[in-house]
Specification:
Layout (H helix, E strand, L loop, with lengths): L15 H6 L9 H5 L5 H12 L4 H20 L9 H12 L1 H11 L18 H11 L6 H5 L17
Helix pairs in contact: 3-4, 4-5
């Protein structure tokens, strides 16, 4: 007997805002700083991006969403070398700099293990950013292609120290 499987017609999309907000119960340090404003974690990170960078809200949300996608993909696929361009990297750095949130991300999504960030000085120019966008798409993420192609082959200065760093 032959069994033919029909391809799935449903699309599985992962929502970065929902995934980032899910970190809230895992934040245990400096909770007054993080939760005092009554904002969701998503709203907090967007507000911090707007405070520290010249961009409109829509761009801050796009940057943050793609940074969450990249961060979770690097955690979920520790043996795959990934990297971001300069614009998405702003969002990645925002997550890392808000250390109570970063620790919450590590607790929830990385089994409590700290995910390091130790970039090189020189930017890469080997197409890793474009390969990363293709990889994210293959993993079910709905990327913002404009943010990934704007830097083209000019990628963040990450190295290949996987699985402990991005």
């Amino acid at each position: 007997m032959t069994v033919a499987l029909a391809p799935s017609t449903s699309t599985h999309t992962r929502d970065p805002q929902t995934l980032l907000n899910a970190v809230a119960p895992h934040i245990t340090e400096l909770t007054i700083n993080v939760f005092d404003g009554g904002m969701s974690i998503w709203e907090r990170e967007v507000a911090l991006l707007l405070r520290d960078h010249t961009m409109v809200r829509n761009m801050a949300e796009r940057v943050l969403g793609n940074a969450v996608m990249y961060t979770l993909a690097s955690i979920e696929n520790p043996d795959v070398h990934l990297g971001v361009g300069t614009l998405v990297d702003i969002g990645v750095h925002q997550l890392i700099l808000d250390t109570p949130v970063w620790w919450g991300i590590c607790r929830l999504y990385n089994g409590g293990r700290f995910k390091h960030h130790a970039p090189f000085i020189e930017r890469r120019n080997d197409g890793l950013c474009l390969r990363t966008s293709d990889f994210l798409t293959s993993q079910g993420w709905s990327i913002d292609e404009e943010l990934w192609t704007i830097d083209g082959a000019n990628c963040s200065p990450c190295d290949n120290k996987v699985p402990d760093s991005h």
